[in-house]
Amino acid sequence: MFFRIYFILAFICCSLAKAEILNQWSLYKGSGTEIQDSGYAMADGVLSGSAAWVTDDAQRGTCIEFPASGYPGLDIPGYHAVQGINPFTVTGWINTTDSNASIIGWGDPFNDEGKWWPNRGKSICVAVSGDSKLRVDVFGGMKATQAVINDGQWHHFAVVVEENDTIGEIDIYLDGALQTDCNTETEGTEINIEEGQAVNMGWGGWSPWFTGFEGFMDDMRIYDEALDASGVQADIENKFVNIFPQTGQTEVALDSSLDWQTTDTSNFSEYSVFFGSDPNNLTEYTVTGDTSFSPSGMVNETTYYWQVQAEEGGEAYSTPKYSFTTLPFAPIIVSSPEPQYLEQSQTAQFSIEAENIEMYAWFKEGSPDPLSNTTRISGANSDTLTIENVSVEDEGYYYCQGLSAGFDPAVSDSARLMTFRLAGHWKLNSNLEDSVDENIPAATTHGGVINDPNYIANGIDGEGVEFFGDNRPMIIQESTDYFNFYPYGFTVNMWVKTDDFQTWRMLMAKFDDPDNQGWFISTAANGNQTPFYIFETSGDSQLWPGINLADNQWHMVTAQYDPAPDAEAYRLFIDGELIVENSAVAAGNLPVNDQPLVIGAGMQDWDTFFGMLDDVRIYNYPLSKPAVAQLFFDLKPDAEPFCYELPEYDLNEDCKVDLQDLSLIAGEWMVNNIMPDTL
Predict the structure, then answer these.
(1) Domains and CATH numbers, the chain
(2) Where does the secretion signal sit in this chain (predicted)?
(3) Which of 44, 310, 428, 650 is deepest in the core (most CB within 10 A)?
(4) Is the pTM of this model over 0.70?
């Protein structure tokens, strides 16, 4: 049996004119992984791990479940809420029997050395304590109720923090009542939140002390002020959710509708919508059987006000009066083009959405001149650019300018075009050059740099390089952005030889620590393995092969991410054979980083490898399983054969059709005197 809590954490942002809902994650959709924020900050979130929808909760209807396993979370990527000494308000409903569990938190709990005590008060976490109380922690100070909250009942709670508060000065409400009997530790710790970990709900992996949350959540909010007792009560009694547009929203399209939802316990049949540009003289409209109203006649660069009222059981309910501003007359880019990763000879298409545009112009980064229509290029002066029969020469970044007389151009974000191919190949034969252009002449190359490299004569294919764990890795030049294609698929392939993995060392990485963005292949003394780590928004996926490779022999290690909708897998191969496979996120959902590609170490110069490497490759797409196997047999042709599917007429199951298979057919013919149909 679970219990439910509604919590409020309150702070005011001094830069805002009046209190409004900064964020409102209503959790009403019931499907998908995207979580809409209908507050004016519009910080949308995403479900991660095993977090899942529940649509038949007895009290809340639709909510989110956080199971005990699978690293469930609700992440708000890149969003850091309110910072500094400013107050704010967080609200939400939870239902749990868990303890020592993180509900919501953000900030910077660790310094650069990974220590929490120098960062007292620089982050905040609302949690269920180890002794089942409601606890607010700033890591270096905490305050907790005496009341047990995971008692199998629904509860509402609120934590109110005023500007310049210490942890001892905050107020905690439970079921609308101020809690006057609380436990406090280091009550003088000042709350001064710094940017660090983004807002996260349900997963305590970033917290020094709390673990993940097991239970349910619904209607999570952050306000821009510290609510008083009446504000807490009003929030408990709220009937309206998922408001659009909220106060403070700008660049609202002229054809936008006014939208709202009601809580699952509401039963309104009719609404009064008040709308207009004069806050003191709004026009009333009646809406029946719908939760949307489409005003007519809105014009650019105008502030409008609106409010919804309804009655139920003889009581009147109302939203606050919201205000928003429509799009300016100037050109505006509403959405930018998406990256295009595709086969050569296919067609690439970039599109934008824009307002107030008289003329479009598409550009390729590196050239000041706009593109023109040709036999292969069309739409160069429209909102959609099409490039047919793409080749390596077309690779690069494309963007659009929207033009309107009398205004500066509106410029979209750039989107990458790249064909599926080998993106880097370091043979390590007496040099650290990238030889990818030997077979792909138009490809951009990225050579490596090692401080006094040690070449070996007996690599797997010619020479190789030996590393000694002494902070002398191979740094790939100008690779920071270029190799950030990995969220759309990749394959890394290398040959490794060592007789002792010793400890945790890196073979190859495109990785940023402590932000945990990217991927790496490492060594581990535990079983002398080569695990593959890849980092999603809320945590990592680890693939451990379970094979001892520290035998002083050359082994091929291959790691890949396959984002195809029918696959969505991370894979690790050893010597051409698939060893382990994990489920993966959809394309474009891995965070990128600003670190270079590194061979023989992790970030720049740490965890340097002990051993030899040769023939290192990276592809910008997932190789097929037979293609991975072929890479192995190309350099070890005498190895015991294997294949993922036997070729037709491979009678001796050696993965090839040759004279030996013909001799088997002839032998059967001689024994049985059966003439083949082909003769």
Answers:
(1) 4-236 (2.60.120.200), 240-326 (2.60.40.10), 335-418 (2.60.40.10), 422-635 (2.60.120.200), 646-679 (no CATH)
(2) 1-19
(3) 428
(4) no
